[in-house]
Amino acid sequence: MYYNEEIETMSREELHRLQSERLVRIVKYTYDNVEFYRKRMDEHHVAPSDIKSVDDISKLPFMTKQDLRDYYPYGTFAAPAESIVRFHASSGTTGKPIVAGYTQNDLDCWSEGVARCLTAYGLSHKDIIQVSYGYGLFTGGLGAHDGAHRIGAATLPTSSGNTSKQIMLMKDLGSTALCCTPSYALFLAESLENDPDTDISRDIKLKVGVFGAEPWTENMRKELESKLRIKAYDIYGLTEVSGPGVGGECECQDGTHLWEDMFYPEIIDPVSLQPVPHGNRGELVFTTLLKEGMPVIRYRTRDLTYLDYSRCKCGRTMVRMGKILGRSDDMLIVRGVNVFPSTVESVIMEFPEFNGQYFITVDRVNSTDTFDVDVELRPELYNGNMSGILKLKDALTWRMVSVLGIKPAVHIAEPGSIERSMGKAKHVMDKRKF
Ligand SMILES: [Zn+2]
């Protein structure tokens, strides 16, 4: 099922024409309305008239999160203040957040993106969609909420936290879909398993999970699908570009379709900043083709992935993005080796003995980096069988060595001892920064 069949299945030639027309317009619009873009383009000796199609996009300069911070709060807004109808902000842990402003058209495009995703997951006006993303400045809650309305589904806006109430409403109202971060879904699943009054197959009506806002692995998908008895789908997005629903998986679960008629993606080499050949891995860059409030031109997301332009079996022609392999920002350099927390997670999830909760600590002692990984055992295996635990610890350590190329100190933790997250999970502490 498609939400917007004409657009989702349009030929690549037609799409190229539509993207080009929109790019020409947005470049002129931002140049005319935003001093930041005008200065940046003038410095790069490129004028709006140099952009005739998307094939010219590499003539334009990049922008980064730092630019959005430097021009906080209104410096990259292109629409007049009176036409902004909503603000959101990123969850910056240090300094000023990234603030995004939306016009009504921007909210309509955003909810259309989410509606396309929800429809691709098989959801419709018949569903009850429990939105357990945080409501507020974070785009997750209201983004999923507006998309659910757009397809006529009932929303259950529980927001994040208060897990026992979430479970009660999920059971009593019969939620059929759950939108939240994968780490919160895992926590909910554990809570359901531990609830003596709940039999998941009898009491829970969920059929679909809509998970995003943090990278997650195929192993995590399997875990969530089996624990919650659902199909788990990826939804992708970021506040700087719009919010969740920049793209989503289809029923084939073979990559995340990006809604290229609204968000033009590129993959670049994060060091040389040159485009990489189709299919190669690199950093994802977006240009918003329709946004009025706060458009971005060649925004470097720091997300590392690849794009697949081959036609999907679902019939959609829109490009598919591979799983996010990590963020160039999140990459840890430990004893000179590049380590992505998502890779550590995927190694842990290869072992059915672990419950998916983990924490990485990096520090520097006597000018050498230390690299500690705490993982939790499933409760039923934490039974004082020390030789079994030691064997498992060895097996995990050596698997990490072979995949990461460096040896961590693995600690098997008591079930429930690693702090749970209600929103985006915190899996890493780099003490070298303090
Ligand atoms: Zn597809």
Outline:
The protein is built from twelve helices and 21 strands. The chain has 434 residues and is of the alpha/beta class.
User: How does CATH name the architecture of the largest domain?
Assistant: 3-Layer(aba) Sandwich
Reported for the largest beta sheet, the result is: 9 strands, mixed
CATH superfamily assignment of the largest domain? ANL, N-terminal domain
Mean pLDDT across the residues is: 93
Question: Helical percent range?
Answer: 25-40%
Explain how this protein is built:
- The protein has helices at 5-8, 12-33, 35-43, 65-70, 104-120, 139-150, 163-173, 182-194, 200-203, 218-228, 341-349, 386-404; strands spanning 86-89, 99-102, 128-131, 154-156, 177-180, 208-211, 231-237, 244-249, 256-258, 263-268, 282-288, 299-305, 307-308, 320-321, 326-327, 332-334, 337-339, 354-365, 368-377, 409-413, 428-430.
- It is α/β, with parallel strands linked by helices and 434 residues long.
- Bound molecules: zinc ion.
- The site of zinc ion has 6 residues, from loops.
